[in-house]
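Hey, I'm writing a tutorial for new members on how sequence and structure tokens pair up, and I'd like a real worked example in the thread rather than a made-up one. If someone can provide the structure for the chain below, I'll link this post from the tutorial.
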Amino acid sequence: MKAAPVPPARRRGGLDLPTLLGMYLFASHGDSPLAWPKLKNSLRDAANKDPLDSLLLTVAGGTLLFYYAERGHNERIQSPWDALEYISTALSVGYSQIFPVTPGGKAIASAVMAFGPALAAKALDAPAGADDPSVALTAEQLRVQKLILEKLEKLASAVG
């Protein structure tokens, strides 16, 4: 009896694109912008700088990547709207009748499920520095506001 052939993505010793990318990211260091330490710090900074933008980018990017990875391979992905349904549920409750079937789709789904809920939880938080005017305002804006405050205080003391 002849054994069934193993699909290419599951062959031993074969390296697919997600595996190679993962190996590069974890092994790279130095001045490359894709070096893992720089990449993870950039992602953290972007998520803290404006959580809502980060969530929207995750949803939009995840939707497009998932759609392109799954279309033609997954009968439940007929349009980008189907991919949006899957990605948006993966960010929260994880309930959908759509499941990834390709290695790329599974990698995208894993990333969205790992980081998406944390982004969704912070989405309505104020951007970093919003509660500290010296960080949120430029030096010129702060100077003008101080001048306005001084004039208002002079007016208030003259009236009262």
